[in-house]
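fold-stage: in
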Amino acid sequence: MKNQQMLEKKRHKEKEHFSDFSFTPESPYQLVDFLGGVNYTPSLDNNEIFNRSVGFFRKILTEIEMEKGWKHFKFFIVQKRINDGSGGFSVEISHAKKRRAPPKKTFNCLSCDFESETNKVSRIDFPSTTSDDTKKLLSLWLDAKARPMFIITPVRHVERLSECSDEELFSIFHLATQVLDEETKVSKAPWGDMRFIKMTLNHGNSRNLEHLHLKISVKRQDFKHFRDYGWDNVKKQKYKILENGLYKRDKRVQKIDNY
């Protein structure tokens, strides 16, 4: 029975990572290097890396949304170690094959509602490498359901990555690398390098919430290490409140029935 459960879990994991299309840069890069490093600002190279990065992601979105006409899909980034000219990060696109309704409306968008207790508790400080310009564009969160991940959202209410400005589009991925870099360094993680399972942006009826979310999923043991060895007491307390199911009690973000 146990072996059967493990096999089913493996099959589910393989199915979850299946994609219809895979996109990579012309040369293999780790995501952080493709984006210029955690301390990169466009003024350092007259926007060269910024323009290359934005162009790469825009080209993918144009092919998927404009040429193929897809509205419902999962956009996720995975990464492998670079070895003998292969590996690096790739963008995987998986079409939403299940037919279901778009996300149910909530009384208040969780990411926009500053009066929501869930919003207040799950919001966390930016890494030390994050620029003031990025702080004006994006918000950084712990997952409201206390899953082992970090969440990044645009401050503006947008629902698709293609709706983001070039600055928002670049910054959402750049901030993701800054978060992982800081969590790894502050906690003195023994593995040293920046690692994650995947970064996910759901579109159309693949979403559970209206607002665009970048979910940065990490291994549960990695997340626990970040929490135990890198977080201050305030951040630990916030996470504990979320673990106790705050979002389930937050009436401001409850779903609207029969909308």
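fold-stage: in (second)
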Amino acid sequence: MVMNQVSEKAWLGQHNDYLVDAGNGHRLHRDVISPFLAMQDAAQKDGIDLQLVSSFRDFDRQTAIFNRKWAGQAQLLDTNGDELPFEALSDNEKLHSILTWSALPGGSRHHWGTDIDVYDRAAVHNWGGKFNLVESEYLSGGPCHALSCWLADNMEQFGFYRPFSVNTGGVAVEPWHLSFRNTACAFENARHLDGFTKAIEQSDIEGKTCILPQLPSLYNRYVLNKGL
């Protein structure tokens, strides 16, 4: 089923009544669960332990992620995945480093239940290093390289694609992030700046004095991922 209408609260991650349980605390849009399980089964047959790292996240959860990073309670990374010195960053530098990897609440594709982050659980376990969900782990020599290659060859037949496959100057390249195209497109088309702005204004997000004056450009650069 392709959704034709998506409510404002749905794309903002403030309401989602079409989620189903995907196991291990994960939830997905009801239209996505069967294609995901079919893709997971096909990967398993090819020796790939494709598992979810992240699935649906609501507005409040996304706010908490942003606020932890704003407060320096979680590491900030540059576009290459290298850690940045938190204390040396201005508020504006801090904001852009966060948005390179983590969306503003209301602006995350994970709000829709159509988008997932995946990894090869068995390969990561056997690798034994600290898994950080960065691009190098999905390139040659990384524990999820075989998964990344398998996805490139197979994901489209199950309806998935990578929305962050190229760095445009917005969101960093995320080879682990997959989107179920047919359902996600309805959410994409429903987004608008006015609703996003109102949600941020009414939220408990930190850094509002830095965020709000430049929200239109942040919306285009990161939420729509139009980049620079």
